[in-house]
Amino acid sequence: MKILFVASECAPFIKTGGLADVIGAVPKALAPLGVAARVMLPAYPALGDLVAQGQSVWETAELQGGPARLIACQAEGIDLLLLDAPHLFDRPGNIYLGADGQDWPDNAQRFGALSYVAAEVARQGVEGWIPDIVHAHDWQAGLVPAYLHQHPGPTPPCVLTIHNIAFQGLFDPSLMTALGLSSALYTPDGMEYFGRIGFLKAGIAYASKITTVSPTYARELMLPEFGMGLEGLLRARASDLFGILNGIDLEVWNPEDDDALVAPYNARTLKRKAANRAEVMKRFGLNEDGAGPLFCVVSRLTTQKGLDLLLQALPVLVARGARLAVLGSGDKALEDGFVAAAQAHSGSVGVIIGYDEPLSHLIQGGSDAILIPSRFEPCGLTQLYGLRYGTIPVVARTGGLADTVIDANEAALTTKCATGVQFAPVTTAAMEQAILRTCDLFDQPAIWAGMMRRAMRHPVGWDVSAQAYKDIYRGLTSVQPPQD
Ligand code: ADP
Ligand code: GLC
Fold this sequence. Notes:
By secondary structure, the protein is of the alpha/beta class. The protein folds into two domains: 2-247 and 463-476, Glycogen Phosphorylase B (Rossmann fold, 3-Layer(aba) Sandwich), CATH 3.40.50.2000; 255-457, Glycogen Phosphorylase B (Rossmann fold, 3-Layer(aba) Sandwich). It has helices at residues 18-30, 48-53, 86-89, 107-124, 143-150, 175-178, 199-206, 215-220, 224-227, 231-236, 273-283, 307-319, 332-344, 357-366, 382-388, 399-404, 410-414, 428-442, 445-457, 463-477; strands at residues 2-6, 36-42, 55-60, 68-75, 78-84, 133-137, 158-162, 170-171, 192-193, 196-198, 209-212, 241-243, 294-301, 323-330, 349-353, 369-372, 392-396, 421-423. Strands 3-4-5-2-1-6-7-11-12 form a nine-stranded mixed beta sheet, with helices on both faces. Strands 15-14-13-16-17-18 form a six-stranded parallel beta sheet, with helices on both faces. Helix 4 packs across helix 5 and helix 5 packs across helix 7 (199-206). The site of alpha-D-glucopyranose has 14 residues, from helix 1.
């Protein structure tokens, strides 16, 4: 079976968040199941070397104001199709934002072009390669099903995965013509979202099947608190909506073989974690003496992640003798808040503002617990890395966090199945209680060590979920078109 993945990020080539990790891992997990996925991505500057090494397999003189080519290449075990359109993608800095921190003004054209070319490849193929299914990810690929829907002839089925409904790709309706979209699609049941074009809404309206990245988020999405205005449409499509839990790449995230760690370890050599812990303390300027746990955060600093609550809970954490290392970047107010907290609680709170992939591995390897107080979390990957590295996740009970962490309540402790701490509601008070509960557990070495070992055994790979994607693909390809 041949699948065309369409996405705006793919690790290790270009990454701003968990989407990239997922796109980089799923094709590798599908391959042994007989599913060959090719990943179409924009050729950002970071992919320049790959473009130079690859082969042009398609070209056009005009795509949203300039020429474009598709470059086929293979890298890191992934089959790539890179959309080389310098006027759209060859620009410095963030892939979504200009230097002023605002969205690039032509994001509709940039990702509309990606979706348009993907739909063309889906219909006509490149060099004889025609996919059986197109799998579009998030709003950046949301127009793929719309382009296929408006085409009069037969087209392959399309799966849409919602990684985060907070990002919808909303634009002015006057762009419909420039994007080559029929005005017939601009309806409340179609791609109109309160007077704007919704790229993600188009995907939800016209995809054959819709998936999201955890079973709990699939249910939450149909509620007004989480659906962000799309809950009605999602309820209408409930029978086509599936929650498939994300996994992680067990080779990239492997505490036994991770170059970013000072001392690699496994569940039998947990004592070696101490050397990584000491290194994290040093890098973050934390006091090495003290009995409490070392908490960490590795995150985008945005409202979604609930880290404003952590700022408020910090006095409780510090008073209990715990320490905190924060690696993150994002909203200025949160960045400033954590920098000020590190000054106010010098030696107990350490902060590095920025994005640093190797450091994120070291932090997972060296911390005792990872804090994830998200207001909503479609899946979340850092709690899965935490489990794999024996770094106990302390999480808000929402979305994929609820589905992956087993709370250390009495029943779970008695039956020896706890792997972390959950709290709800997402308030400062509940978070403070969770921090104190974690410190109490940490003070009981036998219980804590048991939780660490169980966390490390918890299955966090892609096996089960890759099979679930394959089942969806198979369901779609085995449907016979109606006979006239
Ligand atoms: P989201 O995609 O909403 O940001 P996820 O938990 O799914 O959340 O994925 C976040 C990914 O980005 C993880 O791989 C995490 O390690 C990584 N990450 C987030 N912030 C940073 C940072 N400042 N430095 C390095 N990696 C980071
Ligand atoms: C999004 C979500 C995150 C999820 C990731 C990968 O960025 O915020 O929860 O893990 O996509 O699916």
